[in-house]
Design a protein that fits this description.
The chain is mainly beta. The protein has a single domain, classed as Porin, CATH 2.40.160.20. The protein is built from 1 helix and 10 strands, in the order H-E-E-E-E-E-E-E-E-E-E.
Length: about 240
């Protein structure tokens, strides 16, 4: 699914850029759009979240089944100069991941089929602070790269739940700090600016909440569990 999303994004961005670069039309839409110091907008998009695990012992990897999630949020843009902008993009990010454990994690223990599966639902209030580096505008397009840091509060977190995996509750921490990098293209249309972009997000901190049993088959072999993911956003300004 993530490959399909990335392919669609590439086709949209490439076809839009090709049409603008090689079209004979040279009339600039919204020629002064980027002149104001501050501008606003909103975005809609999709995400595909994964987990990156580090382990204590060399057992089989925990397999993560990813699903397509949804993003929506606002944009506040501060113009530094013609090529650099500072952006704040608070939004809501909804995702779901499924963890599949190999039976080797339960060596010498009794277990049920349900013990090999855990679902991790996340509803993040996601607040990135980003620096956008743009090229010179060509006709009605302006490519850019973007990078920065973000924090996220997981409203679906059960960090403080007194139950753990022994009764089927996989727990993850409430807050996470990320770094983000990506690229996109500003397309200056007649009425507004439309921006498709792709961004990778990578967690700095371990997010797993360990079970009370230090020998728990679900958490004892995990040194760290960090979110990583891909955003495909469509911005309207």
């Amino acid at each position: 699914m993530k490959k399909v999303v990335l392919l669609i994004a590439f086709i949209v961005i490439a076809s839009s850029a090709n049409a603008q670069l090689f079209s004979k039309e040279r009339i600039k839409n919204n020629e002064n759009f980027d002149k104001p110091k501050f501008s606003w907008g909103y975005y809609l998009g999709f995400n595909s979240y994964d987990f990156n695990f580090d382990y204590e012992q060399d057992l089989k990897d925990i397999q993560v089944t990813k699903t397509l999630g949804f993003n929506v949020g606002l944009i506040g843009n501060m113009r530094i100069n013609d090529y650099i902008d500072l952006r704040l993009e608070p939004g809501l990010v909804i995702s779901k991941r499924e963890l599949n454990y190999d039976p080797s994690y339960f060596n010498g223990m009794e277990y049920n089929a349900s013990d090999l599966f855990r679902e991790v639902r996340s509803t993040y209030i996601h607040v990135p602070l980003l620096v956008k580096f743009s090229t010179k505008r060509v006709n009605n397009i302006k490519p850019f790269v973007v990078g920065g840091i973000s924090t996220a509060l997981n409203l679906s977190s059960n960090q403080d739940n007194p139950d753990d995996n022994s009764v089927g509750q996989f727990r993850a921490k409430k807050s996470t700090l990320f770094y983000e990098v990506g690229f996109g293209i500003d397309l200056y249309l007649f009425w507004f600016k439309f921006t498709p972009s792709i961004r990778g997000v990578f967690s700095f901190n371990d997010e797993i909440v360990r079970d009370f049993d230090p020998n728990s088959p679900w958490t004892s072999n995990v040194t760290s569990m960090k979110t990583r993911g891909v955003f495909l956003n469509f911005t309207f300004q």
